[in-house]
Amino acid sequence: MNTANLKLYWREIVAGIAIILYIIANAQNNNDLSIYLAASRDLIAGEDIYVIKYKEWFHYYYSVLFALALYPLAILPVYMSNVLWTALNIFILWRTWKIICSYLPLENLNHKLLQLFSIVVFVFMLRFFTNNLRYGQMTITILYLALEGIHQIHNKKNALGGSLIALGINIKLLPIALVPYLLYRGKYKATLFTLLAFLAFLVLPGVLIGFDYHFSLLQHRWNLINPANPEHLLDVSERSFHSITALLATLLVENAGNVHSMELKRNIMNINLENLELIINIARAVFVGATLYFLKAAPFKTENDRLQILYELSYILIVIPLIFPHQQQYAFYFAFPAATYLIYYCIRSFFNNEWGKPKSGYGIMTLLFLSYLLMSSTFILGEFRNYYDHYKVLTYGAFILIGLLAYCRPQRLEGTAQ
Asked: What is the pLDDT of residue 144?
């Protein structure tokens, strides 16, 4: 074994030990997984899992199918369930990273730059990795299902890819944004498989638990997640919510918040709720319409440039937690593709001298670093987290990422396929 292989071997051993120790430590957390498992047990017992409040305050929001699928974990000892859940999520995270990297022409980076690229992405996304793992969230799985689904569709496996996206939509509605994208890209078979699989996943639990019980649960779930619900208009029932809805509510309505809000002024106007709803919907429409800017090919034509595909997905995915209400900080794990793309863009441009104008390159890297500071502020200086959440600084960090995406188009990189 040569020196290089020996170093790699020992790095893999150290990484493996670190992951095992992390899993053991993280499994001791009492997080949202306990809610999912309790809902799974209550479902089997015939309870209405969308009416019960778990841990006194919290609803179960995910699908009936997901609650059923979790039952094997729900009957295990709590610690064992946590170990298996954490290990599964770490594997899914690794697979997501591999999928994202498969869209990048990494052959343009030498070995040292590849290491730098991986380290910078890891640091940028670390707070979202740890938040989702620590709190037992589903965001890692949902993003994986979306990206794996698209990946399989581009590999001509439309049924598998569509089913994965449909499963993500069934569990949590967020990946539904990919359905119009598939249509725009002329992926008609994949779109059809996605819709058919979604219907199948929606109906399937009724076969096991009875259709009357199942349809009652579906109605009560919709009552919770319906975006038109009044509580989703202000979207400030928790200080840690971050989205366009939460940001505009705090900026445009005086004293928008709850009993936990800080007594610090943050609104610049004070409008009524009808006007606020109109402005929020206009803002959502702007972000949805802006998708056309990021799509290179004409409608209903397949895009084959893999870097362009990642670029398009990066925008769509980072916008999802912004336009959907009731999003916590960990939902911005959806920035993973966008952050990876931009870091690749910066490293390749800087070290390969591909900046069109050097000053613009330094500006891009400065803004990317500012975005990191805003999005990871609670991770860097957690003692001020209440202020960060009060002023929604994470949301501004996401806006900066979107602005950088708009500027850093794949066509700006020399040697990229046009």
From this structure: 98
Tokens of 242: 């971050």
Sign of CA dihedral 102, 306, 122, 125: negative
For residues 113 and 354, is the Cβ–Cβ distance under 8 A? Answer: no
Q: What is the pLDDT of residues 344-363, one digit of tens each?
A: 999 998 887 666 566 678 88
CA angle 148, 369, 360 (to 5 degrees): 100
User: Does residue 172 fall inside a structural domain?
Assistant: yes
Question: What type of residue is 228?
Answer: A
Specify the DSSP class assigned to residue 298: P
Q: What is the DSSP letter of 239?
A: T
Mean pLDDT score of the chain: 90
Total residues belonging to the chain? 418
- For residue 103, being part of any structural domain is answered with yes
**How many folded domains does the chain comprise?**
1
Report d(CA 190, CA 187) in Å as an integer. 5
For residue 176, what is the DSSP state? G
Q: CB–CB of 96/339 below 8 Å?
A: no
- Tell whether 245 is covered by a domain: no
Nearest-10 crossing angle of helices 393-407, 306-323: 150
Instruction: Please report which confidence band the pLDDT of residue 55 belongs to, taking 50, 70 and 90 as the band edges.
Output: confident
Beta bridge mates, 58: 54
Tokens 């002023």 belong to residue: 391
Residue 361 forms part of a structural domain: yes
106-133: per-residue pLDDT in tens? 998 888 999 999 999 999 999 999 999 9
> Are 319 and 332 in contact, with CB atoms under 8 Å apart?
no
Q: 29 phi and psi, to 5 degrees?
A: -75, 140
Output the CA torsion sign for 53, 58, 63, 67.
negative
- Of the candidates 333, 325, 318, which has an alpha carbon nearest to the alpha carbon of residue 405? 318
CA angle (109 as vertex; 105, 112 as ends), nearest 5: 145
Q: How far apart are CA 248 and CA 269, in angstroms?
A: 10
Helix, coil or strand: residue 209: helix
Domain around 172: 31-225+290-412
The structure tokens 């569990």 sit at 171
